Amino acid sequence: MIERPQRAMVIFAHPDDEIGCAGTIASWTQQGTEVAYVVCTNGNKGTEEMEVTPEHLAQTREREQRNAAAALGVQEVIFLEHPDGELEDNREFRGELVREIRRFRPQVILTHAPMNRSRHAHRDHRMVGTVTLDAVYPYIRDPWHYSELTKAGILPHKVGVVLLWGSESPDEFVDISNTLDIKVQAMLCHRSQFVERPSRDPNRDFGQGMREGAKRAGEPAGLPFAEAFQKMEFRI
Questions:
Q1: 106 pairs with which residues across the strands?
Q2: What contacts 223, CB < 8 A, 6 or more positions away?
Q3: pLDDT band, residue 236 (cuts 50/70/90)
C-alpha cells in the first residue's frame, strides 16, 4: 500500500467526482495529511430538471462540495468554475492546474484515469486526467514552462506519484474499512446528485451500493473494502 503523504491534492472534473477516492482521503486526513481539492467545473449542467437553472445548480453544487470536503477533513477547496462539459486540453486549463499544483506542492496527486477501454467516461473526466498528467510532467517541473508563474514566485515543483481512479488496470489498493461510513456520509452531502436527482432509483440504498463497490474493489488485494488506483510514478 502507498505510503501516506504529508500533502495530497485531488483534481477532479465535477462536484461529487471525488467519490473515487473519498475513503482514502478520509483515512489520510485522520492521520494528519493536508489535502486540497481542485474542482475543475461548476457542475452547472448535472440535472435532468428543466426548471433548475444552471446558475442555481452551480451554487447548489458548490455548497454541497464544501460540505462534503468538510466531512472528509479536507482543508482547502479550489473551484476553477469552468462550465460543465466544456473542459479543453489547452494552455489556459493546463496553466490553472500548474499554478495550483506548484502553489500547494503535494507529494501525491489523485485524479481520473484518462481512459478506460472497457467503458465510456465523461469527456470532462478524460480531459482532467490527461491535462493533470501533462501538468505533472513536464509543466510543473521546468521553470520555463509557464515562466510567468515562475517569475511571480510560483516556483517549479516535482510530484512523485499520481493515483488514477477508474482505471481498468489498478495496481494500488487502499483499505478503507475504517472510513467507508465517512465516505458514504460525505457523498450524501451531494444531495442534488445522489438523493434528489429524479433519475435515481428512490428505493436504492446508496450506502449499500458504495459498500458493494468497495468490497469488489478490495477482492483482488484480499481487503474487505478498498479503493483501487493505477499508480504512476515520476522521477523526482
A1: none
A2: 173, 175, 177
A3: confident
Q: Which helix (H) or strand (E) holds 8?
A: strand 7-12
Tell me the one-letter amino acid at 180.
L
For the chain, which domains are there? Answer: 9-233 (3.40.50.10320)
Band (pLDDT 50/70/90 cuts) for residue 75 is very high
CB atoms within 10 A of CB 233: 9
Q: Which of 133, 83, 75 is nearest to 104 (CA)?
A: 75
What mean pLDDT is predicted for residues 25-54? Answer: 95
Give me 157's grid cell: 515543483
pTM of the entire structure? Answer: 0.95
H or E segment to which residue 36 belongs: strand 34-41
H-type helices in 42-122, by residue range? Answer: 54-71, 91-104
Question: Cell for 228?
Answer: 483501487
Higher pLDDT, 26 or 236: 26
Handedness of CA 119, 123, 128, 129 (dihedral sign): positive
